[in-house]
Fold:
Amino acid sequence: MNKRNIFFLAVLIVTGLIVRIYHLNFKSFSIDETIGSFYAAESLFRVVIMTINDVHPPLFYVLHHFWITWFGMSEPALRSISVFFAVLSIPLLWSLGTRLSNRRVGFIAALLLVLSPWHVWLSQNARSNAFVMFLVILSCFFLWQRFSTGNRKYSFAYAIVILIAIYTHYFAFVIWIAQVLWVMMRSIVHKSWFKEWWLVQLGIAVGYLPWIPFMTSQLLSKTRPMYKQLDLIFVRDLFDSLNPYAAANSSLIIWAGRLTIAFLLILAVSYLVKKKTEFKFVIARQMKSFLVMPTLIVSSIFLLLSFVPVSTWLGMLKGEIADNEQIYAEAIKSYHVDQLETLPISFLYASLMGLLLLAILVLFPYFSDKIKALLTHQEKKHYREPLGFLIANTLFPILVAGLLSIKSPYMLLRSMSVIMPAYFILIAIGIDRLKRYAIIPVFLIFVFASYSFVHFETWNTKNDWRGAAEWVKSKRQAEEPIILDHLFGKKPFFYYGLDTKIPLRRLQFPDFRKKTHTDVWILLSYPNDWFVCDSMDVYFDRVEERGFHGTTSIDDLIPMNQELRVIHYRKKDSRLSE
Structure:
């Protein structure tokens, strides 16, 4: 790398660092951030034990544990681990883009990462997403290096990175599966590479065996109402979040950004297809087979017809639940009923994945012929297929995640950030193909990103737990209890210096009323059936109350009336309240 490239890379890194540390503690800690920080602050043994009852693997908490030991528990200190790995991702993406195409593509891809509002938002969260994205880029780098150079040392490095990634976040699995599918769909590989690849996968699987029982338990028992299903609305939101206009609040900017990015993606894919890669050759040749089209058509009709009975008994099931008040009240929550709505679309994606598997089976004879040719040393060529590689790391993770969501929705925008690196490289290739006119989309991207950053602090806001806690601390006497309406608020309030009581249920209220002789503070956050303020209003007066802004992220559970509310109660005269 010459001095000019080093200078430009240094500018990107410094800019990315400045953008990510600016107002690092502007937004309050979220529930997940506070829970994660308390996990990480425990001993290493307790970190693992507590993580078993969480919805994530333990590795990030272990890493965060050592980070806290060095830097402390303040908001900037806890979030700085994400900033660190986010900034490291910039030169790494530059290097990956350069190897997949050229240095200009690498520079543009890194620039897109620097200017990405979503990546900045992830960088300012004390969660594992920025670290996972760093690992995804690293896994792509090592996999491509093994494929393009033939050096076996990259296989070992790839296995280590993937194992670290899946011990960090479950959505790293979708990248791993996508990369396995990419290698399977390739038609020409070296004999040693083919055998070595499956040994690598075996090593990863063996390395993950100790955590599989706990992972299975978490997946079967944990259901969160904020999780999304894979549908057109989610895909639209994902597309918008990935792009530099993500935080813009102007419909004109958003639509201009959508059209610009769509044009660049089409340009990139069309250019890569014209290179006549082996990926294109395999699909084009096999689609001519007389077996392919009839098989797909008949299968499609059969699977699509299955939606009719699903829709019919779905309505009957919902009616049965609604008519049985005892079942609904004691066993089924509203989000369980909402989950039933996801069944038809889940069947749709299951059908699509089934069709994909059918297509692979139809193509299998061709793949087996190629493998046989490899084993007899009839094929020695070394192909470079950036199109198949990039598509596999963008499209396949979405499809795999959709398939995994059939049982219950698991989709979150921040989890799908794993597709961002390959996505940015595709856009960079599209810009690079414009040659001397590339300055036009680069200028537009700067405009979109600048407009986004002007509105960044009001985009994807978090619940203002800090504001609520500080207000209560300024007003409350030490002996006055703080009652939660939901356990979600316990960890954030505790982080900000307030000890709270567990949610007060209706049956507990009479005893609570008799024993309480001080003022009471109530936090109203999420809808639930555990506590109602009308019971308080009979025996207590409202002294004052205040609202604090709630989250605007579609990944989160939205609080009641989109805000947190704290109410200060004072007990009425007992003679008047009887």
The two ends are 82 Å apart (CA to CA). The chain has 29 helices and four strands.
